[in-house]
Design a protein that fits this description.
Chain A is α/β, with parallel strands linked by helices. The first copy, chain A, has helices at about 80-85, 90-95, 100-110, 115-130, 145-160, 185-200, 220-230, 250-255, 270-275, 285-290, 300-305, 325-335, 340-345, 350-355, 380-385, and strands at about 5-10, 25-30, 35-40, 50-55, 60-65, 65, 130-140, 165-175, 205-210, 235-240, 260, 280-285, 310, 370-375, 390-395, 400. Chain A folds into two domains: about 5-65 and about 360-400, Urease, subunit C, domain 1 (Roll); about 65-355, Metal-dependent hydrolases (TIM Barrel, Alpha-Beta Barrel).
Chain lengths: ~400, ~400
């Protein structure tokens, strides 16, 4: 293997021990294979006599972007429903016509694994060309053993097919399937007794997720699922406090959750619980935007208690049909008033934390050589610009994509 | 010249005499040179024996997109100010540090015409790859004769350099230049007596625009400018009712304005005036979004009185650093609740009206062959998707870009 030296870079290491953005002027970064071997100012670069040198002409470089919360795999779409709603149809009328999340469940159940792989791959390409090198994908539209496993297998296959690392989460507790409408306890039992062991046996998910909400699952139901999940060695995470304060974040923290996600209605009490457990706050501005939400997540309290904040697309067909993580950087700054540095940390360093990944998210010795080169003149330009392309090159595992 | 037949198309003609989107199933469109010669269902296609046939494999086709309100030409940027504001600096502190619109005026005055062309061209490319075939560009950061003319010449040059039609508007009445802070009447006189005749003499603008607002120009000042502009044969248009109801839209309508733009605070009385004059309402969701505005433009009243609604990026370094007209289609539906058909009409048919162009904006016999092919399965998908690429090909003047 030959060393590769990327030089003449404005480097944003996101390694926050130092200055803002972990910025290094006129930097170099040395890669061997898929790992970073050296990072620093070019003037301090040791000799690597046989190295291949790549001149970046002063471009900015960041860690590869990490989209830590997506529902990228699903069947069908909700375009027709989107149009009907804008033409005046009520949510009731749409539900009666078979719309809403259950329409996605039906379409996902009807799709083959190959069809799910194909449709999600097409969506994924949009994210990859903008610098995403790691993506989390959840199940949750199958809602029975066969179809939840099918979704997770599709997600894994997407990771093998494309130059991206896929981290999977099992989200059986996403919605109540219609066949369990009158016996919800049985569905929770099905998750615990059959789905979780099957997912574990096939090694199909790193984490177990749930939707804790009036229209989702109660804290009591989620707790049963978390207990079973932890016994099987899964990490846990939770959709919490999106539409109301269910105290889901505190519950998740109790079980050492990697992250709690959405959080518009999060209380300071729950934040204190998250602080103890080291749980990341994942904010999803695309859903906030699409749902025209006006209740902001408690950014100031998260800052006050030093909770790491991550940002993701929440890419899904209903509440966040988003195919740009870069746009979420802008929305995090515009809608949530995160500083550009916070927003960029949210899709790099803190997104890695939200997935329990310690080998990426910052540019430092020993970390994965996942890097993005940007056509910008100031780090805040990634937050400032609304739409448009800024990505010059994506480097995944040391190789240009 | 050979005829070109584009066939196997899901055609959205936006010619609203017919069904929604002016949709034609399994359509063909025949182009000779830069004009459309025939449009219809393939089964009705006359014979063109020597024609070149292009199979579109069932892709959707729309008219070329028209961005009818931009400030694409400017010097410098406002990224630093954007970051400072998010780090807690007040507007006052930023103004004292030389920020705000006057920082753009300074940077624009200092830039050469070539520098303005280069920076705007880079921004323009983002719009072109997403299907924009006609763009309006305003002056308004020069605020003296020399620099206003320089901006307009740069805009014209951009039109010659790229495969896009550039329509220019003279916006001398954008802000009061610092050197006239204490004698604003003299600046209005300068516009009327020197700038307008100079712009007219060089043929540098189709329309004269202004910013009618507490922090801009009064209705009285705008009226003087409009009277002079009309005498010189210019069309007029106006930034109106963005931050307060100045009755600017009614004033603009009195002078037969092509469009009034922004309109969050527009009253029904002004809408009635616009109806009489056939003035287009140009809505700018990117500015609404960036400024975190909560006052919505009066969509229902505009519908009630059948006012044509156009949508544009308002691309500018301060209140709308937007480089995606496609994202504005989504924002128009998401933030303003326009139907997908209204949103698409807003960047095609009605955007052409807002620029006084009768030769484009719909796909019909005799119109310009400006067309876009889309990788979508439903017309509403253009509104539904947030970010990501959907454009397969852009055809400008009959040729693939």
């Amino acid at each position: 293997m030959t060393h590769k030296i990327w030089k003449n870079i404005n480097l944003l290491t996101m390694d926050n021990s130092e200055n803002p953005y972990g910025y290094i002027d006129d930097a170099a970064i040395v890669v061997l294979g898929s790992a970073i071997e050296w990072v620093g100012a070019k003037k301090d670069l040791p000799e690597f006599p046989t190295a291949q040198v790549i001149d970046c002409s002063g471009a900015y470089m960041t860690p590869g972007l990490i989209d830590c919360h997506t529902h990228l795999v699903y069947g069908g779409n909700r375009i027709d429903e989107f149009e009907k709603r804008l033409n005046g149809a009520s949510y009731e009328e749409i539900a009666k016509a078979g719309g809403g999340i259950l329409s996605t469940v039906n379409a996902t159940r009807q799709a083959t694994e190959e069809e799910l792989v194909a449709s999600a791959s097409k969506r994924l390409k949009n994210l990859l060309t903008e610098g995403v090198t790691t993506i989390e994908i959840k199940s949750g539209y199958g809602l029975d053993i066969e179809n939840e496993l099918k979704m997770l297998r599709a997600a894994r296959k997407i990771g093998r097919m494309h130059n991206v690392d896929v981290v999977t989460s099992f989200l059986g507790a996403h919605a109540l399937p219609p066949e369990y409408a009158v016996n919800r306890e049985d569905y929770v039992d099905l998750i615990i007794e059959h789905m979780l062991p099957a997912v574990a046996a096939e090694g199909l998910a790193q984490a177990v997720d749930g939707f804790c909400e009036n229209i989702g699952f109660t804290c009591g139901e989620i707790e049963k699922i978390f207990i079973a999940a932890r016994k099987l060695g899964f990490d846990v995470k939770l959709h919490a406090e999106q539409l109301s304060d269910q105290k889901g974040a505190a519950l998740a923290a109790k079980y050492g959750a990697l992250s709690v996600d959405h959080l518009e209605y999060l209380s300071e009490e729950s934040i204190l619980a998250m602080k103890k457990s080291g749980t990341v706050a994942v904010l999803l501005p695309g859903a906030y935007y699409t749902l025209r939400e006006t209740k902001l997540p408690p950014i100031e309290l998260l800052r006050k208690h030093n909770i790491p904040i991550a940002i993701a697309t929440d890419s899904n067909p209903g509440s966040s049909p988003v195919l740009s993580l870069k746009l979420m950087i802008n929305m995090a700054s515009t809608l949530f008033q995160l500083t550009p540095e916070e927003a960029l940390s949210g899709v790099t360093r803190n997104a890695a934390l939200a997935l329990g990944l310690t080998d990426r998210g910052i540019l430092a010795r020993g970390k994965k050589a996942d890097m993005v080169l940007w056509d910008i003149n100031h780090p805040a330009e990634l937050s400032y610009q609304v739409g448009g392309s800024q990505c010059l090159a994506v480097i995944k595992n040391g190789e240009v994509n």
